[in-house]
Amino acid sequence: MSVREEVLDKIEKFKSSVISSLTEISELDVTCKSIIEQHLNDSNSLNSKSVKKIQAVIDYMYEQVNIGNWKEVRLYLRKTLTVATYLRLKAHINFSDDVSDDVIKEGLRIIDFGILFGCPLDAEPNLLQLCASCLHSFIKHDEKPDIDGKVVITSTVKCENEHQNSKVLEVIDCPSMEHFFRNYILAEKPIVLDNCLNHWPAITKWQDQSYFIKLAGLRTVSIELGKDYTDANWTQKLMTIEDFIKNHIYNENGTTAYLAQYQLFDQIPELKKDIVEPEYCCFSETNDPVDIMAWYGPKGTVSPLHHDPKKNLLAQVVGEKQIFIFSPQDSEYLYPHEHELLNNTARIDPRLPNFEKFPKYKDAKGYYCVLKAGQMLYIPPKWWHFVESLSVSFSVSFWWE
Description:
Elements: H1 3-12, H2 15-20, H3 30-41, H4 48-65, H5 75-94, H6 101-117, H7 127-136, E1 166-168, E2 171-173, H8 177-185, E3 191-194, H9 202-205, H10 210-216, E4 220-225, E5 235-240, H11 241-249, E6 257-262, H12 264-267, H13 269-272, E7 291-297, E8 302-306, E9 311-318, E10 321-326, H14 331-334, E11 366-371, E12 376-379, E13 384-389, E14 393-400
Parallel strand pairs: 1-11, 2-3
Antiparallel strand pairs: 3-12, 4-5, 4-6, 6-7, 7-14, 8-13, 9-12, 9-14, 10-11, 10-13
């Protein structure tokens, strides 16, 4: 069996699950549905013309899911995009002469587009992620990376009570569940937790950025470009993790780039093996899963002063961040934006506050910390927080109700 046949055989094993998922896209129009059903039920029907038809379905679904508010997009449209991506991948491998790294790279690009704009199928929630793992296992890695990927903390900010309106946040050593619940969850009080991440493989593995290139360098992700999301020139761009690392993590003179608030671990489950959901997240009022987000970028990335509706444990894995945090009771002193889309974001920059423009800020009483690798910060719901990376940084946030 050739490598191409081996890859196709592995991908073909998901065919029955995909066929059973057709009931999930029953609202699909007749034309798109007939194209999908034909090529799912008869793999021999795949030819150069059918590839164009499948791509046309993908393009049409992409247009449909990008009309109006993302939250209001009908799920069957996104599920159709997932199914069509599976077919497009099969056709791509089927019509390739061999399975070279370039073929795999294009296959992963096809998959990631489907993951980013599609959504999981009930019949096989990890369909595209499993296909990506299959392809990735055939990549021929270079033994020597062409970058020195180890993060070095070249400068830091001393955590002293030198910031007006802010006092240094307390650090405690790995509290008991009962102590954390009683004194911080119930009291809605922020705290830095030390020595809670020592068992994470990520604490050692992620210090070398070439690890990400080897494990997931060919994967496509959405990167934020610009000073921060309130900036008029802020935008987003799709790029591979390898391009992001080489062109932005180690290039502080270019446009600021940030993989921010990103569901990286759903897209690339192999990375999730390096972290462990903190036990403190069990103090939940619902049965909903914990939202796990990645924050990865160079020195100087900023999340402006804002608040979130859920409890938040921010785990610092690589590098350091300086963080300012304020109670909801200080909201009137922080000058939130009036625009509906930014009403959870304030206009104050706690690093250099403009008291002439924002005089009420002098009455705010906040906290300050430098969050170091291996520490976690608990941020209660609705507490304002400003975050700046002091070095190359990778953080993981756990949000729950």
